[in-house]
Amino acid sequence: MSSCYILGSRVDVLTLAAAVDRVKEFIAAGTPHHIVTLNAEIAYRASREPELQAVINRAHLVTADGAGILWAARKLGTPLPERVTGIDLLQALAAEGARQGWRFFLYGAAPGVAKEAAARLQRENPGLVIAGTAHGYLSRDEMPRLIADIKAARPHILFVALGAPRQEYWIAAHLKELGVPVAVGVGGSFDVLAGRAKRAPAWVQRLNLEWLYRVLREPARVKRTAALPKFMMAVMRQAKGG
User: Which Pfam families does the entry link to (predicted)?
Assistant: First the structure.
């Protein structure tokens, strides 16, 4: 599997279908694997935060989550075939998991959201096994119980929706202890599945303007998107050999 490096962070060159195939291989292997869905904001932060970049580059699979990553890869002469976002990967794995008999565990988001997301996934994918859920507002003292619950549930795939980069650090810290074949950070995916947040229409996604749609619906995101111009400038410097 080939990869490219954007501001020092690895991104694997693959389609959504290929990512699902890789997950099948990870599950067959049975050993713990970490998947990162990388967007431009986190790639820029990682370029200034060596610990985060190390977590990303140690991951077993890194997908292109967002138009910014696709743009950067083209600019650097290593184009990627398509976006592989957290929510798209989650839904594709749910469909495959229902066929394969995989067990899922959903951890993150506000109280009640993971359960609502799980219910929708099961409605859309009859036979899908959700082995457990937990919200993302647990204290440090509650963490040992969460770890024990996940281990007891024996999921094939653990989805973690704590927001980036918190979810990446959490997975990296607990992956070996959990022994889960696949752990993947999926950002705000549970909120979308639960109906608490609305995803951009398909035509907006095709135009690679999903980020703008989010800002218009959630003006508080403006501060986060302020990193995008800095990301673009840094990529252009990299493209020029700077």
Answer: Glyco_tran_WecG
